Amino acid sequence: MTGLLSVADVAAARERIASRVHRTPTVSAATVGEMLGLRLFLKAELFQRTGSFKVRGVFNKLLTLPPGDSRRGLVSLSAGNHAAALAYGATAIGARATIVMPRTAVRSKIEATRAYGGEVVLTDGPLIDAVHDLIASRHLTLIHPFDDLAIMAGQGTVGLELLEDVPDLDAVIVPVGGGGLISGIATAVKAARPRVRVIGVEPIGADGVSRGLVAGHPVTLDRTTTIADGLAAPFAGEHTLRHIRQLVDDIVLVDDQDIVAALRLIMQRCKLAAEPSGAAPLAALLRETLSLPPASVVACVVSGGNVDLDTLKRIL
Fold this sequence. Notes:
Strand order of the largest sheet: 1-2-10-7-8-9
Mean pLDDT: 95
Helix content: 40-55%
Radius of gyration: 18 Å
Shape: globular
Distance between the termini: 44 Å
CATH class of the largest domain: Alpha Beta
CATH topology of the largest domain: Rossmann fold
Low-confidence stretches: none
């Protein structure tokens, strides 16, 4: 696949991974919606295998790899959710995965990755440098966490499910890290219903996509500072920026206080144990930075539920 994904690519991914992933529920959030003057739905990807949407893209990539590539072993970089998904997926197909993670990664996510069968390499330096060293020394196959068309197509299956569950959808709001999820969702949604707005939400302290869009090319952030570790990608990719530029209606920024307020509301009113990354779309609605007509039908993607208990104690 080159250029832009097509909805056919996403549909093929859905068929390919159907037996490997959950079809997650889309739940009504009527009480919160009334507060906002909207009809609100939450796409509950926190109920996905390994606790996040990431496994969709991982399986689509792994199931399209030449056998020799997977036999050599797999490698990637991640702060947590992609790490767990790749470890799980690799074990499921009989391959071995090595994931480079920052030494500062959430301890529970490191432990989950190991529990799923992944080898974790912790580093204080740039993750991509450590990955390149492993590729050179062990001849491993890179499974990029977001900037890969097969990964993006797998994530786009979230969009197909949303369109089926909410036929009168006006807008979908998606958390943004490296941009793979929103790229896939936008591909699926815009092909079927071009009028539906696709809006991304980034943390102010991890705004790699926004900076990349302004610059016209990927920009590597010197540092990321956000409680939403799942959105703390240090850069966006060539593929994801191209899709976002052409298919996404808007990218908005929220700060950590907005995310914490949204996380409290999701837990108290919706009874969902989301992680901070999954609360970012609701944070944008609470902040009223989006111009949506009253009574709009809106879906927020709750992208993950791998919440760290120590982090919860600290922020809540």
